[in-house]
Amino acid sequence: MKILYVPGRWSPKVQNEYSGSDYGAYNMLKRQTETEMFLVEPLEDTPNLIEKIITKVYQIFSKKRWIKYYPSALKKHGVIVNRAIEKYQPDVIFSKYSAPMVHAHIDRPFVYMCDSSLKWTKDIWPEFSKLGFWIMEKWESRVIRECNRLITFSEESAEVIKTQYQKDPDKVSVLPIPAYIPEHILPDKKQIIKDISKPFRLLLVGKRFHLRGMDIAIETANIMNEQDYPTELRLVGYSGEDQTHVKFMGVYKKEDPDELQAYFDFFKWADLLIHPSRFHSAGIVISEAAAFGLPTITNAAGGLATSVQDDITGIVLTKHSPPSAYVEAMIALINDKDRYSRYRVAARDRFDSKLNWKIAGDKLFEIISETL
Question: Most CB atoms closer than 10 Å: which of 41, 134, 270, 370?
């Protein structure tokens, strides 16, 4: 089977692209013995003169970004994709992004994988103009309409696509977001069994302070300490001013072997991943944590109730829960060692059965094969 892989702005050959899922999908499809892979060059999103002027005007008068991708760049890239289709004559086209497919001439099976959709997430992106959203929704709707199969990372996202985009439910599949963990870093299952430490070690991984609920996590750690439950919180992916019980660890580059190892060492250090995100379509960090048998406490915002199985691989609180709810749930968990141990084992079991790219890659290949 010949697969044409269409990336977004980042090369799927580099693990440090935005979420890491492009890297996993590309490499796991490439390892399939039945496939021949052809890779389109990444999208070069460069504006023309008119677009530069429009962008500047929007910045001055509305303080907003006009649009996420420049229309002229997508048209140019559409030509590149169409040439690749003509040159390689693939049996199927695959992409994790809608933008590079907007102007593609899709004349053969097309599989589209997405973590979210604009109709579901536009409220959390106030920096874009109304005109920009209108244009981008038109683009995305075309790609969703024309794909033969659509794969998304949560039940919540799938429901939006089926109801708000009117996509045939039989063409929508849910694949919980997998993580790519190198074999030399993945711990043995025997190593994941451990008791909660003193002080209690909390880990948060994210790059956006408000959206990822870092303020909620900090307040949670402070309350825990006030209530005589000594707690340390480390925030990875963000730089800030350390506090008594809180340390900002900064950003780690996954393409650097030493930094990659240091990044995953935090999952070995922690007792619990806290993920109080105000919205997250899936959350690859939760799958990364599961590889280390690290349970997650989160809330039902976005698709997080798919990423974490409540009372199985962690705790899912009600949407937008306050710090006090996290404190109450964590204290109960600290005082129930058997439940904590059960969470650790279940988290790793789920990684082994669903949340790793080897398994997910086989499932992805199966879905792609079905389109033929």
Answer: 270
